[in-house]
Amino acid sequence: MASSRVILALLLAAAAVMASSAQLDEKFYSNSCPSVEAVVRKEMVRALGAAPSLAGPLLRMHFHDCFVRGCDGSVLLDSAGNSTAEKDATPNQTLRGFGFVERVKAAVEKACPGTVSCADVLALMARDAVWLSKGPFWAVPLGRRDGRVSIANETDQLPPPTANFTELTQMFAAKNLDLKDLVVLSAGHTIGTSHCFSFTDRLYNFTGLDNAHDIDPTLELQYMARLRSKCTSLQDNTTLVEMDPGSFKTFDLGYFKNVAKRRGLFHSDGELLTNGFTRAYVQRHAGGGYKDEFFADFAASMVKMGGVEVLTGSQGEIRKKCNVRAMHLLPQYSLIVARNLPWLRSRLRRGARLGVETVCRLMSRELELLLFLLALRASGEVVAGSAEAAAAAAAWPALQVGFYHAKCPVAEDVVLGEMRMILEEDPTLAPSLLRMHYHDCFVQGCDGSIMLRSRSGKGERDATPNRSMRGYDAINRIKARLETVCPLTVSCADIIAMAARDAVYLSKGPWYDVETGRRDGDVSVAEYAENDLAPPDSNIVDVKTFFSVKSLNAKDIAVLFGCHSIGTSHCGAFQKRLYNFTGRMDQDPSLDAGYAAKLKKLCPPGHGHDHDHDGHGGAGGAAKVPMDPGSGFTFDLSYYRHVLATGGLFQSDGSLRDDPVTRGYVEKLANASSSEEYFADFAAAMVKMGRTDVLTGDLGAVRPTCDSLVD
After folding, report:
1. 51 and 105 both lie in a single domain
2. What is the rounded CA–CA span in Å between residue 447 and residue 705?
3. Are residues 106 and 208 in the same domain?
4. 113 shares a domain with 245
5. Domain termination residue (choose one: 273, 292, 311)
6. What does the entry list as the binding residues for heme b (predicted)?
7. How far is CA 418 from CA 411, 480, 494, 639, 694, in A?
């Protein structure tokens, strides 16, 4: 009886462990690989900058992975011997991007060897593919493990483009996805292309009559004629057609507009109009007025699909290369495993203290893996990859003080010398150059991308937050000087970081050692700047969100905001606080009345132009208001006294009083008699910010000129 209770207890414990292991977590790698999302995003930015058409295939690959054996990376495995894998099955023969997945995985392996699964890498890549195509961004729950089985015949679980509505609903229901998920995820067809053979039956052989008049009657005639002009026969296996004509590289509502007009490319698209619920959803979003709602729905459905039949905990494996099983060497050790079975059994019989979780794992299908690892240990074999992983991690280059000591020992002296002359000519450039480093780091990391010029006018420099930015010529001047001394050695990203430090120092602020070794990025997108930079009217919740994404905490916020001690702003950046704070022609009640009256004299209604700060000499002659009236262009503590007394110039400044950590720091510095502690804190926070998503080693490049043209 007692033994029965023990067994029951163990079974219940096993169920609890297995249930808990099945929970994915957005912060799964926060300790083991905190940089994983940054690494994936860098590679994605690089790839889609060169080949935007990859976005659709990568999104499709994640979908195909999840619908066959769950989201376990099995679609990435190569066929082996007589076993044909999923990737070689007919539905997957047109998938693209396998090589790029391997490249991203290799970058992740360099950062965190043997830690992140291919299934998670693919899920992150799919999210970034959507986001970089101007779609929604969402937090991806992580913790998937990679599967070891990939069978071509199982791809019959994938909804084909010829599916009718009944077939679609059944296939989605089998994965616990409902009608809303069906219509929402179908809109993934807003990006990407398709081969003609996926839909030419609608044009020439819809009912099997195989003649020119056998067309899908639900297809709009003009669209059908256009498709026929591109796909001239049922035998066309090479021509690619946009799934969402006119915006196939942009994630938007165009898909719904086309489907509502009976211009969906696939039969499965048109089938969404045959059901009341899905038809209503299509028609609602065809109008284009509910983009945010659709983006939220798509994010939710992607998270839901991303949890389909996942392997977690001790299930599956972590592959080093996504196309090869990690345990492919197992047969070589079968004799070792067999020799050690009696040893393991004897431990269990003697009641060895294995622990509940270990017992549960022994009860799982992972027994073979556990025995293999135990056998390797008992036989004196070394588990492959441990020393290799440590070596790779040690070899991966990091930023360091003195990076240029051997290659360009005068680099920092040259930058400081040029900065002295630049600020003697125009002292007002100091805050702009400090701000440039901040804006560079917060958009794609500290990679110098803010300096790039865009032929299309859609680079970071063209974004609203950067329209009043100055200092580009100063960085170009410093770069030109360095190129005469050390050609193609010092990156623009490092020049910006050093110039920011020197701007602070030459404004009577602290001197600190700048870590260098950054490489320059080659992608600059205005929309990233619009999305990643906290606007001046942010509340404290928004500010903390923007900073936390860059691994900066509440203290870092309070410290770095102190740079508002130098510089000016146009009225437009704060005028809402004066005249229309809540949309009722009212004033921000947190703003000191006397200070507000002074600001209203400087910025009468309608006087705002550029909606950003530090914009000296901006558009339309807009008034320039000091961000810290007490110090002009001196880096000191008066900013904190100003915020505490008046609420600061920007709403974001005033919001520092709304959080206990930031308020405590403001109060401490407002009453400090010395700037020594603050200067030390500021130096530390700048170094920390300067490490944000940097490119090092063989990532990125060293540009010969900082303002190169792109796109």
Report:
1. yes
2. 14
3. no
4. no
5. 292
6. 189
7. 11, 11, 15, 28, 25
Residues 125 and 176 in one domain: no
Q: 169: domain range? A: 160-292
Q: Which amino acids are annotated catalytic?
A: 64
Residue with tokens 């440590």: 390
Q: Kindly state whether residue 319 falls inside one of the protein's structural domains.
A: no
Is 86 contained in some domain?
yes
- Angle between helix 36-50 and helix 118-131 axes, rounded to 10 deg: 50
Contact 643, 569 (CB under 8 A): no
In whole angstroms, give the CA distance from residue 429 to residue 503: 8
DSSP bridge partners of 701: 520
> Which letter does DSSP use for residue 624 in this model?
E
Q: Give the pLDDT confidence score for residue 622 in this predicted structure.
A: 56
Cα 91 from Cα 76, distance rounded (Å): 14
pLDDT at residue 624, as a whole number: 84
Residue type, 95: L
In terms of Cα–Cα distance, which of 604, 686, 598 is closest to 649?
Answer: 598
User: Which segments are annotated as binding site for substrate?
Assistant: 159
Q: End of a domain among 84, 114, 133?
A: 133
We report the CATH number of the domain holding residue 170 as 1.10.420.10
Q: Residue 418 half-sphere exposure, CB side, CA atoms within 13 Å?
A: 23
Residue pair 286/169 in contact (Cβ under 8 Å)? The answer is: no
Residues 540 and 672 grouped into a single domain: yes
Read off the pLDDT of residues 88-100 as tens digits, 9 standing for 90 and up: 999 998 898 898 8
555 vs 5: CA distance, rounded Å: 53
Task: Report yes or no: 446 and 516 within 8 Å, Cβ to Cβ.
Answer: no
CA angle 81, 83, 85 (to 5 degrees): 120
Average pLDDT over residues 73-83: 89
**Which tokens sit at 105?**
């995985």
Least Cα distance to 564 among 642, 502, 466 occurs for 642
Instruction: Please state the pTM of the whole predicted model.
Output: 0.50
For 559-602, the pLDDT digits (tens) are: 999 999 999 999 989 999 999 888 888 999 999 999 999 999 99
- Residue 511 included in any domain: yes
Is residue 320 domain-resident?
no
Position 48 scores a pLDDT of 86
* pLDDT bracket for residue 354 (50, 70, 90): very low
pLDDT exceeds cutoff 60 at 44: yes
Q: Which of 4-18, 247-261, 403-417 has the lowest mean pLDDT?
A: 4-18
| 39 and 128 fall within a common domain | yes
Cα–Cα distance for residue pair 595/321, rounded to 1 Å: 61
- Mean pLDDT confidence for 126-130: 96
Q: Widest CA span of the chain, in angstroms?
A: 91
Domain count, the chain: 3
Q: How many CB atoms lie within 10 A of CB 332?
A: 9
187, pLDDT greater than 50: yes
pLDDT of amino acid 397:
61
pLDDT averaged over the chain?
84
**Percent of the chain with pLDDT strictly greater than 70:** 84
Question: pLDDT by residue (tens digit) across 264-274?
Answer: 999 999 999 99
- Taking residues 656-684, report their average pLDDT: 95
Binding-site residues sit at 65, 68, 70, 72, 74, 86, 159, 189-190, 244, 252
Q: Beta strand 709-710 with 453-454: parallel, antiparallel or unpaired?
A: parallel
82 plus 168 within the same structural domain = no
Instruction: Answer yes or no: do 167 and 103 share one domain.
Output: no
pLDDT (0 to 100) of residue 314: 87
Annotated binding-site members for Ca(2+): 65, 68, 70, 72, 74, 86, 190, 244, 252
Of 652, 612, 676, 628, which Cα lies nearest the Cα of 470? Answer: 612
